Every structure is written in structure tokens, then in C-alpha cells.
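From the pipeline queue, job 12 of 40. The input is one protein chain; the requested action is below.

Action: predict structure.
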Amino acid sequence: MDGPFKYIREGNGKVSRVIRMGTRKSQLARIQTDSVASTLKELYPDVHLEIVAMSTIGDKILDTALSKIGEKSLFTKELENALERNEVDIVVHSLKDLPTSLPPGFTIGAILQRENPHDAVVLHPKNAGLTLDSLPEKSVIGTSSLRRAAQLKKRFPQLEFENIRGNLNTRLKKLDEKDDYAAIILAAAGLKRMGWENRISQILGPEDCMYAVGQGALAVEVRAQDKDILEMVSVLHHPDTVLRCISERAFLKQLEGGCSVPVAVHTEVKESKLYLTGAVYSLDGADCLKDTMQTCVEIDNKVSESTPECVHVAVTANSISSSALDAAEKLGMDLANVLLNKGAKDILTTARKLNDAR
């Protein structure tokens, strides 16, 4: 095989290709990477997998709101540097941490089946049995996300929202051991992967809080020129999740949104139709533009061998019908343009300025 790849001689004398998987050091990141590794191991028993864990800027700066740091690739830069230097061959990310454009030479080679993408309410033990509706007035809710805060301020004006940072373990500790927060809002997917589903008091449906672009899905980033690795990980693609996430990412990219603005989505694939609801909010949730569009996405799994490689919002998915991928991307762009024509740019620009000034 070509390339600067590493091989290992197993105890039985057989030579195996080594695939080095990069991951963040947090417990959740390790659990996510281990789950991808075990799936790959089942599919490719002859490949030897090595996990390389490292800290990222987002893991190190814990006293500042993510939206204030202003760095697009907070949780990905160090991992991409390692990919570029051939220190790792693939990197496992939460898709929502990956910007809609990747540096040249990188691509998302797989998007796995999505876990529940919704947000969850985790209550302080003393508030067991309550909901956001029944918590006492002026209760403080912890969230590190402008998107969650904007939607929930509008929906639950009687509550107060404050920033909380740190990985899942840290945030739960801050909730349980202090009296600062009545509840915190976290992604249901992360809690489930950590085995902490019993802490979920309430799942927030789209009428309360729509989710972040890519939330709940894992992505595998690779070097675009490593065709053999690209082919190897492509079997992990989950077609419905890929189409949903491509439409969401295209929507965000067209809006030029990111961590520092409140943008939310909700998607569904039903009977070969892809439905996308997207919204932008002012920081206080008072201004909101929201709309829903749909498109036809016949998933034809008989993709011809001659299909040229094409990339949609940094995702390479040659095993999925290119017409379905094109339709999903166009849906995201079209919906963003509908909102931009209604004044989304002004809402997002104001939100960005206010956030920068805080």
C-alpha cells in the first residue's frame, strides 16, 4: 500500500496495517472513539487500531464561554494538526464540533447513525420531579450555548440563564455540589453515551428547543488523499443521518453561522422526503425567523462505480446517491436564503456584536 503507513507484526507472525485514531482526552470523546473503533474492528478484523488522545484549545480554556473564544475549530485544531503530520490516520469528532468548511486536504469520510439529537434537562437533586415549567420563578439554568439560551428564554421567560462550562463530568459536578443552578441543559446524546440516562429529567422537543447542526452524530475525519482509508470508513455512513446533517450544515454555512450565533435546526426523513426546519434567534430569543422546507431524496444504494467523487459541506459520501446528496445540500441553502431574505442577516449580525461586547 502507498503512503507513510505503519504496520505491525502480530504474535502469529501476520503483518497488520495499523490505523491510528485521534481523539480528545475527555471521557465522552474516548467513549465515542472506542465505539467507532469497535465497529471498525468488527468490519475489519485484520486491522490493528491504536488510539491517540490529545487535549484541544476547547478542553484547556474552561473559564470562557465558547461563543466568546471566537475560534471556529476549538475542539478540532490540534487533532487536525496531528492528521496533517501523519501522527494519526483518522479522527473521531462530535459532528457539531466540526466547522462547515474544513482546512484543505481534510474531509469527513463517515457520519454514523445519529443518537437522539435533542437537548435534555438535568435537574439539581433537590428539584427532582420538577420540569422547566414547574421550577420556581427566577430559578437559574446553566447552559454554555447561545442557541439553547435564546430559545429557552423565549419559551420560559420566568427562568434565568447563566453560562456553565466544562466537560460533561465537570458540569454535572458543578450542578450537584453547588447551589448555583436549579438545572442544566445538556445534549441527550452525550448523557446516553456516558451511561447517565438516569439523570435526564426531561427531553426538550422541537417546540421548546431545536437542536444544533449535527447534534447527536459522530463524524470520522480523514485526509482526503487517503483513498483506502476513505473507502474503509465509508461503510460507517448512515444514509438518513448523512442527508439530514448535510442539509443542516448547508443551512448553517449559507447563513455564515457558527458558535457565536443562535442557529437551530430540526430534520426528518420520511418516505423519501427530507424535511428541514431552521431558525435564527436574537440573543434574548425575542426576535426569531423560522421556516420549514422539504425535498425529495430517493436513496438509491446502487451507486455506479463511475460516480465522480464529490464533497458536500466537507462530507465525502460516495456510497450514497449523488442526486440525494445534492438535493439535501440545496435544501439547506434554499432554506437559509428564505430566512436571509426575511432579514436573518440583521438578527445574526446584532447577536454577534452583542455577544462580542459581553
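Job complete. The first strand starts at residue 6 and ends at 9.
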